[in-house]
Amino acid sequence: VTRPASVALLGAGRLGCALRLALDGASVPVALHWTRSQATAESARAEGFEVEHGPLPPTLAVADVVLLVVSDRAVAPMTAALGASGLLRPGAVVVHHSGAGGLDLLDALPTGVHAASLHPLLSVASRRTALAGAACAVEGGDAETLSRVEGLARRLGLIPFHFDGDRARYHAAACLVGNFPQALLAAAVRLFVEAGLEPARAREALGPLLLSAARNAAERDGGAAFSGPIARGDVDVVERHLRALEAPALDDVEQLYRAAALVTARVVDGPQRHALERLLGVES
Ligand SMILES: NC(=O)c1ccc[n+]([C@@H]2O[C@H](COP(=O)([O-])OP(=O)(O)OC[C@H]3O[C@@H](n4cnc5c(N)ncnc54)[C@H](OP(=O)(O)O)[C@@H]3O)[C@@H](O)[C@H]2O)c1
Fold first, then answer.
1. Of 10, 11, 83, 176, which one has the fewest beta carbons inside 10 Å?
2. How far is 180 from 154, CA to CA, in rounded Å?
3. What would the pLDDT profile of 92-112 be if each residue is shown by its tens digit?
4. Distance from C-alpha of 17 to C-alpha of 237, rounded to nearest angstrom
5. Of 115, 157, 108, nearest to 138 (Cα)?
6. pLDDT category, 274, cuts 50, 70, 90?
7. Distance between CA 177 and CA 163 in Å, rounded?
8. Whose CA is nearest to atom 25 of ligand 1?
């Protein structure tokens, strides 16, 4: 494992600060933690993070690894600004954390500065989110850069895997799992309310169900992870569900149910699968 002598963190939002905690926890020296605006610096300070703001400080020049933890659309302009600042140390590695973008986001780096990416597969909802145990996709412009970033990821307790395939498909998959549980919960809460429950009660009741289902899905493989009427092939129950969803106000919920039901039907064997697919309007 190559140990970075010193890291500069640019960005003090959710992932920037979560990385700061992980770096401190692993005793990796942080030479600089910076964010552009005073407002973000102040809100990070209020949560206990020592953060600088304003123009890029000269201490950037001591960093061997620069973690560019800014919003996706700011990565390319910030890379250009870093290049123009003349502060990047030759041989340094600049790492972005976007799931959607490839190394081309860092195209404006000066010659002699290496490009890499590290995308944690984790929903980082707050600055104090623990990163350890999450997997992360890593990419490096060359083999040595890749191994430096993999080494850093391991030191932070992350589980790195090299990925340089289809970025859009990779990121769509990460969004399915990382973002859509919230959409599923929101749809189910609406349906509970339509069924006659109070919204607060609906959230209270469905939250633990979502957590138990997520745990099952993550811990069990294949068909064993699926439960409920669709996985059991109970066509008549699914038929009643679809009729109950026939209302203009529930159009999006119906679409969601049908799409998820179709994916679930793939684990059902035998004639029930065909009956389900017919019911859902797809013949295989
Ligand atoms: N949160 C997650 O779950 C998660 C998971 C995996 C990867 N990521 C990636 O991590 C990166 C940061 O995301 P985040 O969730 O930490 O975002 P965030 O909480 O919204 O923080 C955004 C950071 O970007 C800075 N920023 C925004 N626009 C900027 C600009 N034009 N120039 C310079 N700095 C700018 C902000 O600084 P100022 O406000 O001071 O300008 C702030 O420090 C993104 O690439 C994201 O895709 C996030």
1. 176
2. 28
3. 999 999 999 999 999 999 999
4. 47
5. 115
6. confident
7. 18
8. 70
Confidence of residue 284 (pLDDT cuts 50, 70, 90): low
Alpha carbon of 152 to ligand 1 centroid (Å): 20
C-alpha 85 to ligand 1 mean position (Å):
20
How far, in Å, CA of 30 to CA of 16, rounded?
Answer: 12
Counting ligand 1 atoms within 8 A of each CB, the residue from 38, 70, 103, 119 with the most, and so the one to mutate, is 70
Mean pLDDT value of segment 153-164: 98
For CA atoms 82, 85, 87, 89, the dihedral sign is positive
State if residue 33 touches ligand 1 by the CB under 6 angstroms criterion. no
Alpha-carbon radius of gyration of the chain: 23
The encoded tokens of residue 110 equal 């000066």
Cβ atoms 31, 6 nearer than 8 A:
yes
> Which residue type occupies 235?
V
Give the pLDDT band of residue 133 (cuts 50, 70, 90). very high
**Alpha-carbon distances of 243 from 34, 126, 250, 260, rounded to whole Å:** 55, 40, 11, 16
Would you state the structure tokens that stand for residue 41, as one six-digit string? 């610096």
- 159: tokens are 């589980």
